[in-house]
Design brief:
Radius of gyration: 31 Å
Largest sheet: 2 strands, antiparallel
Order of helices and strands: HEHHHHE
Strand order of the largest sheet: 1-2
Helix content: 40-55%
Strand content: under 5%
Length: 193
């Protein structure tokens, strides 16, 4: 069993060393008078995409010509901004009511008769919860902002590689018609040019 494992690992290492899933775009050969400008590797493209995304969210996706991603980025950043604003307004509302009630003044939750619909501890609890929600909205917005910068940079990196459909590695199980009862394991590699 030990011998079979070693042979399998050695064969796998030998065959995997000869497989190339992608070609770098710098190996473009031009024959004749053809002006071929695509496929030129630009090492500054990922940093430009990240810079544009940092300045204005979604701009790096537009720079990468992935126009459909920009509205998704804007919507993803608008949601935490909206909830931050709502939670901050409610926090200020309850904070003002709490301060007024502590000073013995009438707040918005107290009737003209002096009967309050919300207790002092409820005002404190509401402030704490709204403060946490506000902070989580801010944290979510910062995380989404950073993620869209990273996404633009990674996408710019990946756009520079040849990812043709003809370049692929597809593992497949092939049944042996002679040995139906005993399963066999094999590896078949096909190169399509």
């Amino acid at each position: 069993m030990f011998f079979k494992k070693n042979i399998f690992i050695l064969a796998l290492a030998f065959f995997s060393a000869t497989l190339f899933a992608q070609k770098d775009s710098t190996d473009v050969k031009i024959k004749g008078d053809i002006n071929f400008t695509e496929g030129i590797y630009d090492p500054l493209a990922p940093s430009k995409a990240a810079f544009y995304s940092a300045i204005f969210p979604g701009m790096g996706q537009i720079y990468n010509k992935k126009y459909w991603k920009a509205p998704i980025v804007w919507a993803a950043l608008a949601v935490p901004a909206y909830y931050y604003q709502i939670n901050n307004q409610e926090y200020k509302r309850y904070r003002t009511a709490y301060k007024l009630r502590k000073n013995g003044l009438q707040d918005e939750f107290t009737d003209d008769d002096g009967v309050s619909s919300v207790s002092l501890t409820t005002l404190e609890t509401a402030q704490e919860q709204l403060s946490e929600n506000r902070d989580m909205s801010l944290l979510s917005g910062v995380i989404i902002y950073i993620l869209q910068i990273v996404e633009a940079s990674v996408n710019a990196h990946l756009l520079q590689f040849n990812t043709d459909d003809t370049i692929s590695f597809k593992p497949a199980l092939i049944m042996d018609p002679i040995r139906i009862e005993t399963p066999t394991l094999g590896l078949t590699i096909k190169y399509n040019f």
